[in-house]
């Protein structure tokens, strides 16, 4: 088995464990909604970026799908669910911005390491800061949507 396939399997295992351990039961619905909205945003954004030729995914799970199924449909949405479940709603704006920066920076750092050391991601017209900005925007949209939806049903 290749290093890339091993990384994908380990990612699935770690993310499943993270979801089980880090999403409190009382925040499950918000986390689930965040997962689904982030999945939709990530899928459409990834397809756009791949179609433009800015990023390539040489090793992927589904050959007819140009992007990474693991990242688009599971890892990014799951991390967004965890992000929403622990969002510091009652903290200062500085704490909130720091929380965004921490998640976006951590995810970007991991992506850059994967891009440099594996064939899972290859930047062809992309840079790390576009990843960071994209994550920030999609986290904001996901959080606003979850907040709006939860107010709507309560």
Automatic annotation (TrEMBL):
Keywords: Membrane, Transmembrane, Transmembrane helix. The chain crosses the membrane at residues 6-24, 62-85, 97-114, 126-146. NCBIfam families: CBO0543_fam (NF041644). This is Uncharacterized protein. It comes from Ammoniphilus resinae.
């Amino acid at each position: 088995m290749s290093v890339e396939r091993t990384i994908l399997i380990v990612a699935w295992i770690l993310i499943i464990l993270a979801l089980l351990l880090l999403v409190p039961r009382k925040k499950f619905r918000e986390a689930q909604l965040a997962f689904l909205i982030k999945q939709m945003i990530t899928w459409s954004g990834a397809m756009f970026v791949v179609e433009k030729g800015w990023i390539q995914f040489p090793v992927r799970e589904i050959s007819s799908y140009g992007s990474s199924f693991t990242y688009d449909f599971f890892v990014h949405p799951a991390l967004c669910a965890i992000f929403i479940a622990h969002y510091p709603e009652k903290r200062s704006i500085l704490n909130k911005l720091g929380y965004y920066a921490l998640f976006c920076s951590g995810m970007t750092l991991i992506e850059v390491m994967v891009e440099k050391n594996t064939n899972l991601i290859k930047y062809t017209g992309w840079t790390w800061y576009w990843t960071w900005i994209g994550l920030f925007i999609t986290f904001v949209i996901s959080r606003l949507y979850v907040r709006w939806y939860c107010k709507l049903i309560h």
